[in-house]
Amino acid sequence: MPDKSAELVLSDVVRPGQSLLRPVQPIQDLEILDADLDEPKFVAVPSDGASSVYVETYGCQMNVSDSEIVASVLRESGYGLTRDADSADVVLLNTCAIRDNAEQKVRNRLRAFRARKRKRNPDLKIGILGCMAERLREKLLEEEQLVDLVVGPDAYRDLPRLLQSAEVTGQSAVNVQLSREETYADIAPVRYDSNGISAFVSIMRGCDNMCSFCVVPFTRGRERSRPVVSILRECAELIDAGYKEVTVLGQNVNSYRDGANGTSVSFAELLYRISALSPELRIRYSTSHPKDCSEELLHVHRERENVCNFIHLPVQHGNTETLERMRRTYTREEYLDLVSRARKIVPGVTLSTDIIAGFCDETEEEHQDTLSLMREVRYDHAFMFMYSERPGTYAQRKYADNVPLDTKKRRLSEIIELQNSISLESNQADVGESFRVLVEGSSKRSEDQLAGRTDGNKMVVFDKPGRRPPAPGTFVDVKINGCTSATLLGSVIN
Ligand code: 5AD
Ligand code: SF4
Question: How far, in Å, from the CA of 98 to the mean position of ligand 1?
């Protein structure tokens, strides 16, 4: 077991024992991490009779968090939010541009709303938010005439003005200005789809890494960090409201640095400070870059009981030359070295990753290197993708997207098959062990079963015990007696 008793000596830490815990108010199930990243997440809170807005969110956790900011901005301006797209006055799609198929889904959805507007509701306003906004502004507005509103990820404060302008003039309204400062630090997100137990807290925005395949630096702009004080305040408020878990978010979350007022707070120090708010708040983060996974950060995982021993550490590829073409700034060996340091400093740490199959010029041998790296690291979980060329990226400008589709598909399925067998073995190794699980609610399949996650982010499903089943938001110890490649199965032992 890691020694969790020794605390890091860091300045100006919020004092332990400052627990602000209150009873949990469960609302409903939320399993974002395991969700298909390209599938929409439907959202909203009941409309209060005002002009009502329906928001649909695509893509990553950052977008889910951004939609909570959008909801807050709109609510402040008197808009109601509805779950019912049919009755909405305004439909907003918060979009993802990371792969072509994500964009196609949004385009199809847009066409459906456009048809509804034409046939049934000519006053309906349709808006595109987020990553597709900047990229497709002209195309959407002029060529396809699909939308009334185009709003980039840094312009959500401007939404009420833009909506009003579209309503009054009947013309399209656009703001896709990217900012070097905007972090929405002062906006309290409306957690409309929350389960009341786990929440996202956005701590930085943008990305300066310029991985050659990735469109994010173009759609979301330069890296900027939110002031530490506002993050701690939001986390304290969540604890106060009964939340038991936060996932702190950023495109490159572990490059966080608050340099305001002559201070310099690193990501490791920020995590430490959040963890000191309450021993009962579990803390995760997403998504990190291996170059920013410092020793200091690993020690925070080791020493702080409530910082989960789980790291999402996207490798993208297992071959050094490919990593160089991807501009990932590390070699295979350096990455493997980081994994062994992480395992040494944080014994039992669970690891997940992102992997891309079929990147430009990828040879069969290079692909084999990805498979061999996976066998070596033995990730507990992975998000696996086929390379999709994105306009404007370095790869699109300098390399040919020359791996045939069939080959890409075959390589991706080999990667998925291997990961499934590794995940299964990893889960089988947990059979007979006991884990502390944060109960999230009923399992997807049965009301007679509960579901929750371990510290290592593994999903556990177990029978509801006895007459007084544990409420969502409670920690229970579960003994594992079976598994699939995706889920541990067990029974409560306390
Ligand atoms: N094609 C396929 N996958 C991509 N990702 C980012 N850009 C692309 C692309 N052009 C993947 C990376 C990243 C994850 C969020 O999406 O693996 O870590
Ligand atoms: Fe994209 Fe690379 Fe930034 Fe991740 S680190 S958002 S993959 S550019």
Answer: 6
Question: What 3-state DSSP class applies to 325?
Answer: helix
Query: Which superfamily, per CATH, for 434-492?
Result: Nucleic acid-binding proteins (2.40.50.140)
What fold, for 7-20+193-427? pyruvate-formate lyase- activating enzyme (3.80.30)
**Considering the entire predicted model, what is its pTM?**
0.89
Residue 478 identity: V
Place of tokens 């020493």: 303
CB 56 within 8 A of CB 92: yes
Torsion angle, CA of 420/423/428/429, rounded to 10 degrees? 150
The ligand placed nearest to the CA atom of residue 290 is 2
- Residue 213 buriedness (CB in 10 A; 0-12 / 13-18 / 19+): buried
Q: What are the residues whose beta carbons fall under 8 Å from the beta carbon of 78, sequence distance 6 or more?
A: 50, 51
What residue ranges line ligand 1, CB within 6 angstroms? 98-99, 213-214, 314, 316, 354, 356, 385, 387-388, 390
CA of 189 to the centre of ligand 2 (A): 25
CATH class of 52-175: alpha beta
Whether ligand 2 lies within 6 angstroms of the CB of 225 is answered as no
Gap from CA of 476 to ligand 2 centroid (Å): 36
The ligand minimizing its distance to the Cα of 220 is: 2
Q: What is the pLDDT along the chain (494 residues), one digit of tens a residue?
A: 333 332 222 222 222 222 222 222 222 222 223 334 445 555 544 445 568 999 999 999 999 999 999 999 999 999 998 888 998 999 999 999 999 999 999 989 998 999 999 999 999 999 999 999 987 877 777 666 779 999 999 999 999 999 999 989 988 899 999 999 999 999 999 998 788 999 999 999 999 999 999 999 999 999 999 999 999 999 999 999 999 999 999 999 999 999 877 779 999 999 999 999 999 999 999 999 999 999 999 999 999 999 999 999 999 999 999 999 999 999 999 999 999 999 999 999 999 999 999 999 999 999 999 999 999 999 999 999 999 999 999 999 999 999 999 999 999 999 999 999 999 999 999 999 999 999 999 998 888 999 999 999 999 999 998 778 899 999 999 999 999 999 999 999 97
Residue located nearest, by CA, to atom 14 of ligand 1:
354
* Domains of the chain by residue range: 7-20+193-427, 52-175, 434-492
Ligand 1 centroid to Cα of residue 205, in Å, is 17
- Quick check: 464 and 449 in contact, CB under 8 A? yes
